[in-house]
Specification:
The chain is mainly alpha-helical and about 260 residues long. It is built from eight helices and seven strands; from the N terminus they run βββααααββββαααα.
């Protein structure tokens, strides 16, 4: 990433870590994501990020990671937790979702996969943004990365209850369309209405994958990160609940469009 001019420059390594450039910029806040100017900057930056020629196999990592985290969650959870979070059936859900999404926009690129506001910084003078923290970065469909970013608009990690998601704050269609238009047009081309609507439809479907992704992350993290003050289980519960609530509407709509 450093060689590509993204994020902080890598200045050196030592056996237990590395030395990075200090970024003299401001980390975004939750309200910043609703600012039209900043949202457009993020859309352009994400397109630039997706155009990076990164090494390694260009295979989708999402489904393999979901199955790996599910296996780990089952191994760490008690029998009561397995029942509570329906972990015994989530393997079937992952398979069904992978099959349902196999026919949608599958342009696979190097994705950030964790584009929440705390991983975006802005230089106030130049109004440029930079993306940081690449722990979850890997190759995935474009629509998954954008869907994940939209879901993060329901979060505010700087409140008394940072684990609580407010999905009424998920961007409305006007906000989504502005972001996608900016994303697609930032390459210098004028996207057609069909291109915009197709990507929007794919993004809606990939929100389901995002809920499973972070739901499983929450369960595993709750068992691993004992000393971090965050209600991982409750966070996971919300992501799973949103999955179950929205799945019928989103997948039924997908079936109607393809029939």
């Amino acid at each position: 990433m450093s060689r590509h001019g993204q994020g902080p420059r890598l200045l050196g390594r030592f056996p237990q870590g590395r030395v990075e450039e200090f970024i003299n910029a401001r980390t975004l806040s939750a309200p910043d994501l609703r600012d039209q100017e900043i949202s457009a900057l993020v859309a352009r930056k994400l397109r630039e990020f997706h155009e990076l020629d990164m090494p390694g196999p260009k295979d989708v990592s999402l489904w393999q990671r979901l199955r790996r985290w599910l296996e780990e969650a089952r191994g760490r959870c008690s029998a009561d937790e397995v029942r509570e979070f329906h972990l015994e059936t989530l393997g079937d859900e992952i398979a069904e979702l992978e099959k349902a999404l196999s026919g949608v926009d599958q342009r696979v690129v190097f994705c950030h996969n964790d584009l929440q506001y705390g991983n975006i910084m802005i230089y106030e003078e130049t109004r440029q943004v930079t993306l940081i923290d690449y722990e979850y970065a890997s190759f995935n469909p474009v629509a998954f990365d954008i869907a994940n970013h939209f879901c993060e608009m329901a979060a505010d990690y700087h409140t008394a209850t940072p684990h609580v998601m407010d999905f009424t704050k998920y961007p409305d269609m006007d906000e989504q369309r502005r972001f996608v238009n900016t994303y697609l047009s930032s390459s210098g081309e004028n996207p057609s209405d069909t291109e915009v609507e197709t990507l929007l439809g794919s993004i809606a479907k990939y929100t389901l994958a995002s809920h499973l992704f972070w739901g499983l992350w929450g369960i595993v993290s709750g068992h691993v990160n004992k000393n971090i003050d965050f209600e991982y289980r409750e966070y996971a519960r919300q992501r799973f609940e949103q999955y179950w609530q929205t799945k019928p509407r989103i997948l039924l709509k997908a079936c109607d469009l393809t029939s």
